[in-house]
Write a structure and sequence with these properties.
- This protein has helices at about 10-25, 35-45, 65-75, 90-95, 110-125, and strands spanning about 5-10, 30-35, 50-55, 80-85, 100-105.
- By secondary structure, it is of the alpha/beta class.
- It has a single domain, classed as Rossmann fold (3-Layer(aba) Sandwich).
- A five-stranded parallel beta sheet has the order 2-1-3-4-5, sandwiched between helices.
- Strand 4, helix 4 and strand 5 (about 100-105) form a beta-alpha-beta unit.
Length: about 130
């Protein structure tokens, strides 16, 4: 049975790219795609995926707030931040319990980026 992933990003274009990467490169099943932190929390409750990819800068509820809410309710949730945000906000998310970070822009045409992304996903599960 494949691992499941919930993708949360307010960019439909990026969500599709991330979904394609997880299905074609990693063999994951995408269970849902959310566009903001509110959807992230609701979709996590509904699907309880093996992994969540979370953007930080989104409307309505940002990723940092959604990460806090998910981890408060589901301490064992695996969340990987995928964002252009750097610095203290990312460190706060990692200190709170996010398992990894991949910096945007996503360069899926770059083999080194793809290998690093795959390794980052593997580290979330180890």
């Amino acid at each position: 049975m494949p691992k499941t992933v919930l993708i949360v990003d307010d960019s439909s274009f990026l969500s599709k790219q991330i979904a394609e990467f997880f299905t074609s490169q990693l063999g994951f099943q995408v269970v849902a795609i959310g566009k903001d932190g509110n959807e992230a929390v609701d979709l996590y409750r509904k699907h309880k995926p093996d992994l969540v990819t979370m953007d930080l800068t989104m409307p309505n509820k940002d990723g940092k707030t959604a990460i806090n809410e998910i981890l408060t309710e589901f301490a064992d949730a695996r969340i990987m931040v995928i964002s252009a945000v750097k610095g203290n906000t990312v460190l706060e998310c990692l200190n709170r319990g996010a398992k990894g970070y991949v910096e945007k822009p996503l360069k899926f045409s770059d083999p080194l980026f793809v290998e690093d992304f795959k390794q980052s996903v593997d580290e979330v599960f180890n």
